[in-house]
Design goal:
This protein has 118 residues and is mainly β. The chain is built from no helices and eleven strands.
């Protein structure tokens, strides 16, 4: 019902920056929470950052101070500005859209690969 398309991934050197974008379309509802998750090979998918429709944010501990999540409701887009990237940040990054309550459907994008290496 909600479609999400990510872009902006790629190969970057340690210490570099990338900006991910996710455009939502379809039956967009509000209130909502949009976020970014990541999954590396052999690891569970983990929350990187979330932002509500009114701007409240939540970050995973290791990215605090380096990553910034933001959104533009007029463009139905959420962004993830990633600075001071580390090899440990290498993963497939997925956009997420959900209601701000539990036990409700959650929507996922196709993912965009971020690789941090020399």
């Amino acid at each position: 019902q909600v479609q999400l398309v990510e872009s902006g991934g790629g190969l970057v050197q340690p210490g570099g920056s990338l900006r991910l974008s996710c455009v939502a379309s379809g039956s967009i509802f509000s209130p909502n929470v949009m976020g970014w998750y990541r999954q590396a090979p052999g690891k569970q998918r983990e929350l990187v950052a979330e932002i509500t429709n009114i701007g409240d944010t939540n970050y995973e501990g290791s990215v605090k101070g380096r990553f910034t999540i933001s959104r533009d409701n007029a463009k139905s887009t959420v962004y993830l500005q990633m600075n001071s990237l580390k090899p440990e940040d290498t993963a497939a990054y997925y956009c997420n859209f959900r209601a701000p309550i539990t036990h409700r459907p959650t929507y996922w994008g196709q993912g965009t690969q971020v690789t941090v290496a020399p």
